Amino acid sequence: MTGVNRRNRSATDRPKWGAPPSAGISARDAAPFGWAPLVVLFLVGIVDRLEASVISGVLPQIQAEWGVSDTLAGAIPTAAAIAGAIVVLPAGYVADRYNRTAVIAVVVALWSIITLGSAAALGFAMFFATRVLLGAAENIDNPAGSSLLADYYPPLTRAKVFGWVRLTHYAGMALGVMVGGVVGQFFGWRGAFLFMVVPGLVVAVLCWRLREPARGFLDRVVARGSDERVPVPNGPGSGARADAAGLRSRMRGLDFRGQIREVSAIPTLRLVSLGLTALTLGLGGIFYWMASLFQRGFGLEPGPAGLFSGMIGLIGVVGGAVFGGWLGGRWHGTRPGGRILAGGGGLLLGSLLLGCTLAVDDLLLFSLGLLASNFLSAIAIPNLMACIADVIGAASRGIGFAGLQFLIVLGAAAGPLVVGAVSDAMGSLLGAMYALIVPMLIGAVLVLWARRHFEADAGRVLDRARSETAE
């Protein structure tokens, strides 16, 4: 009996990642719940995008096997993104009302298993269907993950943490192209999809070990503006109980449509979301077709083309996002809307450089131009995501990030399809890339316009947190 009790006690008391220190947390803590939640959510994003982007590295093989046109090939991510757009708002509703760490763990495990369907597809229709199902599943966890980050990390470090997690969308795309190209060349395109099943299941287990933080508690600590340490509800289930109690108070009388109206009325959220949509459209279209462009335009083999294009995207986006997080940290609080200025300026310069690069026919200069363009555009990733977390109240962050994800998946859907359709019409994949420039420039202008609204929108969130603390 003693042995049984010991096993039960150890299973119950096993510490979870993201538990606060016993002394409590203060408004000055950079990572009050530790860095483990950031690492786990970073891995979720990497594996998610790796699985979704493996297809780009093996796309020529799939097209050759089933005789698929560029338009139909470009429609694969479009259909997957549309499926994701359908489920993302309900996913935000779930993220605002249920245990977010459990939601992410279950979803990651499910889409890892569904990946087997892509590898086992007997025809293009079956393959297309599995990609659509995965597109829906992969968008369910995004609102929950973004909401968690805002409850794990304060405004002081939000640009950094959102930058690292959001860059997984683009770095994972680059790595996926590399994995698809290299694994596909040696083991076939089916082997590339099989390769991704195990990492997803491992990450799902890691998510299950995360502690669910109380929603909005960190905002209230920050709003106090004091170095005093505040005790955090601890122990098995206490965070969830505090979360539920807070939700009943803050969401009384606010239904699903009410939440949507509330977040839609935030000017900064509207403008920055459109800017991020344009960024996703541009980078998504470039990454999806980059390996094919190197094969067609410069005569590279599938393996080198996937590796080369993946490295360009990975180095450019990771470097830009890391630099953007540092720049946003320096500019936040030192100038009005400093992070928005950094993000919008980077997107503007990156878009202009992309247009110049597409006119270059030298492989080395073309590659360097793409890398620099990705670097500049990626400065927007950490800064704009952090700005959105700053202007949405804790009780509606799931819905707010779901709305953002809805627009982003539409951008992800449009980029590859637009390039594929224009390529078929023009007979030039390189020429089709120019269709991405205008929306990216418009997005940059919208982001810079949002700067005039940011301080007021962010101030309202802190004012609400102060009133909740007083109550």
TrEMBL record:
Q: Where are the transmembrane segments?
A: 30-50, 71-95, 101-129, 193-210, 271-291, 303-328, 340-360, 366-389, 401-423, 429-450
Q: Which GO terms describe its cellular component?
A: plasma membrane
Read off the Gene3D superfamilies from this record. MFS general substrate transporter like domains
Q: Name one GO molecular function term.
A: transmembrane transporter activity
KW Cell cycle (keyword) present: no
- List localization entries: Cell membrane
Topology in membrane: Multi-pass membrane protein
| Family annotation (SUPFAM superfamilies) | MFS general substrate transporter (SSF103473)
Alphabetical UniProt keywords: Membrane, Transmembrane, Transmembrane helix, Transport
One matching Pfam family: MFS_1
Q: Where is the Major facilitator superfamily (MFS) profile domain?
A: 37-455
Supply the InterPro entries for this chain: MFS, MFS_dom, MFS_spinster-like, MFS_trans_sf
Q: Does the keyword Cell wall biogenesis/degradation apply?
A: no
The ranges of region (Disordered) come to 1-23
Name of the protein this chain belongs to: MFS family permease
Q: Give the originating organism.
A: Spinactinospora alkalitolerans
**What taxonomic ancestry is recorded?**
Bacteria, Bacillati, Actinomycetota, Actinomycetes, Streptosporangiales
